Amino acid sequence: MPALYLIPVSESWRPQFNRTVNTPITLNTDDVPEQLAGYDSLRVWGTTETDSPKKQAHMDRLESGDWILFYHSGEFIATGSVGRIFESSTVGEWLWDNPESSFIFTIENYEDTAPSIEHVWDILEYDGRQVVNGFERVRDDRVQRVLTEYGSLETALFDADRTQIEREKSALEAALESEPQLTENTADYTTIRQRTRDRAFRELVVEAYDETCAVCGASRHSPDGTPEVEAAHIYSRSENGRDDVRNGIALCRLHHWAFDTGWIEITTDYTVSVFINPDREEYHEFEQLDGQQIRRPNSQIPHPDYIAARRQL
Ligand SMILES: [Zn+2]
């Protein structure tokens, strides 16, 4: 079971954090200490030896693959996992001019995006907690409860973070004030941010269509009330199609599949156009949809620019 560490980055260490964790250090000079040799670049963090038995016990148990949430001034600022762990005052001196920072670990899977602090306290059941005061290992029974409920720490920390999802939804709604843009520069977003955006996009599109398929009007739900309809990108994701609600359409699984495979298309006057191939049985299943109006939330959605761009692919 991976452990979860909460690691504070103090105000005075923030510049060093930015220099060796937020930006990977390049290791192409001659004076690289042997413990760091053999790498082109690495993200590295260190902490000082401690006279606190509690902190020491936490540090001693740190293992490769454990999760880290970096904390600064009231919020989590970054996430990552532990790579290698070693002690070296030489490395502390070389990186931070501080031989005392000799308890060193490398950081993998780093993201400068983190879950909201409210969400972290919520899933870990820390009622009313506010701050992280020291290098800390979250108690195993708390982590175990999270794993039982969510399946993985990653899912619990990021996919279930309502605060961040609502933040992304507000950003996507604000973007509706601007002219629609066809594509997204995916390099703008870290993996975690992109996952949160995907989730926000899906929720907004499904809500806009009132959980109903735009083609057939089906509105099925699972026993727990989860809608069956899915949010499809009109100008597709594989073309870097933008996460703009005007580029979304809610479709049941069958019609999502038919849309993806080319059996049905949407025209700029919001009708369904069925691919003609009477030799296939599926054609006869879909043909009666041809020329039907799709259901849409209002005249702005979906935007004809996205529909036209898809039809040109
Ligand atoms: Zn449908």
From TrEMBL:
Alphabetized CDD domains for the sequence: HNHc (cd00085)
Domain of life: Archaea
InterPro entries named in the record: HNH_nuc
Domain HNH nuclease: 213-264
Pfam families reported in the protein's UniProt record: HNH_2
Protein name, UniProt field: HNH nuclease domain-containing protein
Lineage, highest ranks first: Archaea, Methanobacteriati, Methanobacteriota, Stenosarchaea group, Halobacteria
